[in-house]
Amino acid sequence: MLTKVEIRPVTGSALELNTIDGSGNHGYPLSAFDIETNIDSRDAKKMAAPGQWPTFAYPDAMTIHAEGNILGVGASDATRATSYITQRLALLDAFLPPMTLVTSRKHAVLRVRFDGMSEDADADVIVIQQSIPMAALFPANSQYMVTWKSFLPYFVGATSSTQYLLG
Q1: CA distances from 123 to 53, 99, 101, 158 (A)
Q2: 154 touches 164 (CB < 8 A)
Q3: Among 24, 27, 95, 133, which residue's beta carbon has the most beta carbons within 10 A?
């Protein structure tokens, strides 16, 4: 089971997904989290015969996809809407790199931990796609989706530098 997902942007504040605060409110609950490791292989067609020659296939970049909800909290509609907008802006701040950031080849470090892992594991990522559509006439709840790309096929242990193949 996934126990931790934290976005640590190059600039800005870190943000943890799928948490519960001291009041029992869920912070950015996840509904899907998927890690795909692309396999790089080149086709080598046989010249005068049907078929292909077997070639080497290597793990390539990872694609990490997360989906969840932003839930505004509060006693009234106005406070829930304000809470929702605050959470939405914090999520966008963690997802998107600043427009002036052209000196870094990564947007963030994605830190994860699964049950059975003795440490957190990190991957340098860039955002490929994100979407946070706002629901009409329902200002305190919406879904979010983000897809990151990591240039390595594994996460790296935060303290031991162990390579974790998680996808």
Answers
A1: 34, 22, 19, 10
A2: yes
A3: 95
Q: What is the CATH number of domain 2-39+56-164?
A: 2.40.30
Instruction: Read off the pLDDT of residues 111-140 as tens digits, 9 standing for 90 and up.
Output: 999 999 999 999 999 999 999 998 777 778
Distance, C-alpha 53 to centroid of its chain? 37
| pLDDT tens-digit map of 21-47 | 877 788 899 999 999 999 988 889 999
Q: How far apart are CA 125 and CA 69, in angstroms?
A: 21
Q: What is the largest CA-CA distance in the chain?
A: 75
Contact 71, 29 (CB under 8 A): yes
- The full set of domain ranges for the chain reads 2-39+56-164
Q: Under a CB-based contact definition with an 8 Å cutoff, are residues 167 and 35 in contact?
A: yes
Q: Which two tokens stand for residue 88?
A: 């939405």
Given a contact cutoff of 8 angstroms between Cβ atoms, the answer to whether 69 and 29 are in contact is yes
Q: What angle do CA 38, 104, 67 make, to 5 degrees?
A: 50
Q: Mean pLDDT over residues 97-123, rounded?
A: 88
% of the chain at pLDDT higher than 90:
68
pTM above 0.90, yes or no: no
